[in-house]
What does this fold into?
Amino acid sequence: MKKLAAAVFGLLIFGATTAYGQSELVLENGQYYTAEKELYKGQYSNFYENGAKEATYSLENGVLNGQAQFYYEDGSKKEIGFYKDGDKHGEWIKWNEKGQQVGKANYYYGDKDGEWIIWDDQGQKRYELYYDKGEKVGTWKMWNEAGELVSEKEY
It folds into this structure.
């Protein structure tokens, strides 16, 4: 369960991407700067090579702050969440390419926090997990493809 859950959660994490058709920002010491070496404030979007929007971020004083939206190349939504002072904070929702919700995660200043739910591509709930500021807590549950509870573990 641990390996599969880690792989699924990895889908909720994004790395740096390249911007096309917009002035590029430079990430330096955890802050985003313009080409003129000024801290960036406002909306910023990254684009796929084909010109489709890949992501839109909100930045304040060079730091991710506010809603972030990620898209598949066809323009459909991929993930929506929030940043606060550069850290993931609050609820993050992930969809597959068919538009089905496959993940719901919560963060508290970058730490996993609260309820995390993972669904498979058929819409079946597979995992229900709980965190308290990065620590595993509560009863973690796992279901099989048929929707039968197959594992419970108390933390």
User: Anything to note?
Assistant: The longest strand covers residues 53-60. The radius of gyration is 17 Å.
